[in-house]
Amino acid sequence: MNYKGNHWSARKVDQIYIVSLDNHSNIVEALTDFIQDQNIQAGEVTGIGAVSKATLRFFNPVTKKYVDKTFKEQMEVTNISGNISEIEGRPTLHLHITLGREDYTALAGHLLEAKIQGAAEFIFYPLNTRIVKRKNEHIGINLYDFEK
Asked: Residues in the chain with pLDDT < 50?
C-alpha cells in the first residue's frame, strides 16, 4: 500500500515502511509528519541521502546543555539512525546522523534538522508498543521510562 503526506511518500510492506522525502524538504519536519500521519508511536528508523545544510547537536554532560552547530555545504548522509518514542504526550524522533564531506571527512552528532539536496531514503520499523521518555534531571537528558 502507498501513502503520501507533507513532503514525503511511502510504501508499506508487511509492517515496515519505505519512505522517500521530497528534494529541498527538511528531514526532521517531514519525518515527524510521517510518523504522526501513520500513528507510529515506537520503533526504529534508518536512512541515507544528501543534504545542503545540517544542524547538529552535541550534549555536554558537565553543563547539561546542548551545543548546536550548523554546517552549510553539500554533504552525503552516510547514515541516519534513530528511534521513535513518546515525549510529553506526542511521538518524537531521536535521530543521529553521519555526514560525509567533499574532502571525505565526516561529521556526526544528534540531528536537529537538515535540508535535503538530492534524495533522502528511509526504512521505518514500527513496534507494536508505546515507549515513553522522560527527562532525567540528574543526567539532563530524556531516558526511557518503562513504568509509564
From this structure: none
